[in-house]
Design goal:
The complex is a heterodimer of chains A (about 240) and B (about 425). By secondary structure, chain A is an alpha/beta fold. Chain A contains ten helices and ten strands. Chain A starts with 5 loop residues before the first strand and ends in an 8-residue tail after the last helix. Chain B has two domains: about 90 residues, no CATH class; about 290 residues, ABC transporter involved in vitamin B12 uptake, BtuC (Orthogonal Bundle). In chain B, a hairpin with a 5-residue loop joins strand 1 and strand 2. Chain B starts with a helix and ends in an 11-residue tail after the last helix. The structure holds adenosine-5'-diphosphate and magnesium ion (MG). The site of magnesium ion has 4 residues of chain A, from helix 1.
Chain lengths: ~240, ~425
């Protein structure tokens, strides 16, 4: 099997005095969408933040494209092709939608063809192009946050619970956008609580509990095995829908 | 802010029709009552003591202006414009009333509309120019401090030392032989050329000292507010002591450059030339800063960083570089402010910066910590209010800035234009 794009080996993370990640092993194969599932508080967000070096791994190793990035500063990771869509979306409220996008286009002016494609995924953005991002609805902010991550070609996208707090209609729109994104074979690591969403998009899946990965495999296998779902994820996930 | 809160806020911002009608009626009532009391005060000054009539006139005028502004919802929609209009218009009415009131031969008081309009309008124009000049200079001096706080969370109490640096660069040039020659020459080119050189040197020196200050003094105490206060105060003292060691502890009286000094008369108004220069320079710098902040990538980064340094970093920008750049630019701007404050005040001494610190802190708190636009309005409000009050009741002028801050904070605890969540 080819070397995965991203690999975490025995990663531990402390936040202050709290020991949150207890040796996470995780691989993200290139060109696929990997789902990271798990109950609330399992450590999914902490894992993404540790990959971005927003929390420091206290032990273990993270490699990206074969390079050790455990100590690489956040801005270098972003430059090397990682895009991060945080749980709170990280939208700059006082900036216009346009300025949010301009910042995300690190390497210079926005490429018009790329912009057309991104706006094709989220047509609402064009309408709000000059509006302050703080005035957008929750769903529109989520779309802006994902659009920012997509405005330049990336090697890896880290997306944290994009469906959180969104209405079903908007979640469907997001499914459509991610399906189109998958056609470009962008590598994505996507944290989710919404099992239907995960099922519709995931190629492979990793499930976390209590700061470790407790299951890995194909998404289709987990989707087919209800007993396993209940054991790993509890009943809380489906009740989300 | 979550979307739920947004929706809630939007709902709260759109009261029902009945409520709106009630508010309008209240506003109209305030306008009518205030105007009535003010007019009565004009027809028959009711009290024996002049200051009592003044106080009542100010309150009545303020009430009426507040009512008029509330009719148009200005208070809710644009608090900064509301306050500015309130201060400027009430200031005009108060100064006009004060100027129109005079003792009669019979020992009472009489009000003359003619005096109020001619001498009052003249004094008000003069105080407005003075207030704008003072406000704009304070803005230039304060802007770096508010940005440093917004972006890095550092309240740099040593900031005022950079003002002193600017004032001393000015002094050094103006007392030198050739500087005195250029400054004394009746030539705009010589005067402005000299000042341009002074500003350039002040920018460079303060920028370099700012860089050292950030690297040596501030950097080790990011994330520790108590240490920041102690350490930045200490850093400021060190700079001031170095200045004393280099230039001596004595006060130096400066002469303003020949073509920029003096005054001229327009109708009833005596205008000091340099105050107009200060207004022009301050407005130009504000305009330039707005352009940088609103139109350039660095400006967008600064505004983004005030909200979340983490996300700026996660997008691939090195926040540390932005910190250093903003700190240097803020220090340099403070020194430019110091150059013009030195020219404005003309008395240079080692505490020239330290004495402004109090006003600067008030201005950035009023504006909302981290907000450039808020800082601008806060500075204008402080400058105008202290000049108006200084004209009508010099005894309480010192107190007016604190009263302004208390009033603003009671109304809006986060300042006029809050940009950072605390
Ligand atoms: N800043 C923090 N300080 C202390 N504990 C935290 C912090 N952030 C998260 N945690 C704890 O770490 C655990 C994992 O959190 P998180 O990674 O956010 O979980 P998930 O994203 O899977 O819901 C939780 O028990 C949470 O309480
Ligand atoms: Mg989470």
């Amino acid at each position: 099997m080819a070397e995965p794009l991203l690999r975490l080996e025995g990663v531990h993370t402390h936040i202050g005095h709290y020991h949150i990640l207890h040796g996470v092993d995780l691989t993200v194969p290139e060109g696929e969408l990997t789902m990271l599932l798990g109950r609330n508080g399992a450590g999914k967000t902490t894992t993404l933040r540790t990959i971005m070096n927003l929390w420091k791994a206290s032990q273990g190793r993270i490699t990206f494209g074969g390079n050790d990035i455990t100590q690489t500063p956040t801005y270098e990771l972003a430059k090397s092709g990682m895009a991060y869509v945080p749980e709170d979306m990280g939208v700059f409220h006082l900036l216009s939608v346009r300025e949010n996008m301009e910042l995300a286009a690190r390497s210079g002016p926005i490429d018009p063809d790329r912009l057309e494609w991104v706006v094709g995924l989220f047509p609402a953005l064009k309408k709000f192009w000059t509006k302050e991002a703080g005035t957008l609805s929750g769903g529109q902010k989520q779309m802006l946050s994902i659009a920012r991550a997509l405005i330049e070609p990336r090697k890896l996208m880290l997306v944290d619970e994009p469906t959180k707090g969104l209405a079903p209609a908007i979640i469907n729109e997001l499914v459509g956008a991610f399906q189109q994104l998958k056609e470009t074979h962008t590598t994505v690591l996507l944290v989710e609580q919404n099992f239907n969403f995960a099922q519709a998009l995931g190629d492979s899946v990793a499930v976390m509990d209590d700061g470790v990965v407790v299951h890995t495999g194909a998404m289709a296998d987990l989707a087919a095995d209800e007993a396993l779902q209940t054991r790993l994820l509890g009943l809380s996930l489906d009740s989300h829908q | 802010m979550s979307s739920a809160e947004n929706t809630a806020a939007a709902a709260a911002g759109e009261p029902g029709l009945a409520q709106r009608l009630g508010e309008r009626r209240g506003a109209a009532l305030a306008l009518a009552l205030g105007a009535l009391v003010f007019i009565i005060g004009m027809i028959v000054p009711l009290f024996g003591a002049r200051w009592v009539n003044d106080v009542i006139a100010v309150i009545a005028a303020g009430f009426a202006v507040h009512g008029a502004l509330s009719l148009y919802d200005v208070q809710q929609r644009a608090p900064q414009w509301y306050l500015l209009s309130l201060v400027v218009v009430t200031g005009f009415l108060a100064i006009a009333y004060h100027s129109g009131l005079s003792p009669t031969d019979a020992g009472g008081l009489a009000f003359s509309l003619g005096d109020a309009l001619s001498s009052g309008a003249g004094s008000w124009t003069q105080m407005t120019i003075n207030g704008l000049a003072m406000g704009l200079l304070i803005f230039i001096m304060a802007s770096g401090m508010t940005l440093t706080f917004g972006l890095m969370g550092v309240l740099n109490l040593g900031h005022s030392a950079f003002i002193t640096i600017g004032a001393y660069v000015l002094m050094t040039f103006l007392v030198s032989d050739w500087g005195r020659g250029l400054s004394g020459a009746e030539s705009v080119v010589a005067n402005v050329g000299l000042l341009a050189l002074v500003v350039l040197v002040a920018l460079v020196i303060a920028g370099v000292v700012g860089l050292l200050f950030e690297r040596l003094i501030v950097k080790p105490v990011y994330d520790n507010h108590l240490k920041q206060i102690l350490v930045t105060v200490g850093g400021g003292i060190i700079i001031t002591q170095l200045i004393i060691a280099i230039s001596g502890p004595n006060e130096v009286q400066l002469n303003q450059p020949a073509t920029l000094s003096g005054s001229f008369i327009v109708g009833p108004v005596v205008v000091e030339t340099f105050r107009l220069v200060a207004v022009a320079v301050g407005a130009a710098i504000f305009w330039g800063m707005l352009r940088v902040i609103n139109r350039t990538k660095v400006g967008i980064l600064i505004r983004a960083g005030v909200q979340s340094t983490e996300m700026v970093e996660a997008m691939g920008y090195r926040i540390k570089m932005l910190f250093i750049a903003v700190f240097m630019a803020g220090s340099a701007l403070a020194a430019v402010g110091g150059v013009f404050w030195g020219l404005y005040d003309t008395l240079i001494h080692p505490e020239i910066g330290g004495l402004r610190l109090f006003q600067i802190i008030i201005v950035i708190i009023i504006g909302g910590l981290g907000s450039i636009t808020g800082c601008f309005f806060g500075a204008l409000l402080l400058g105008l209010l202290s000049n108006y009050v200084g004209f009508v009741a010099p005894e309480v002028a010192e107190f007016s800035s604190i009263a302004l801050m208390v009033a603003v904070l009671m109304w809006r605890p986060q300042g006029l234009i809050p940009v950072i969540r605390m």
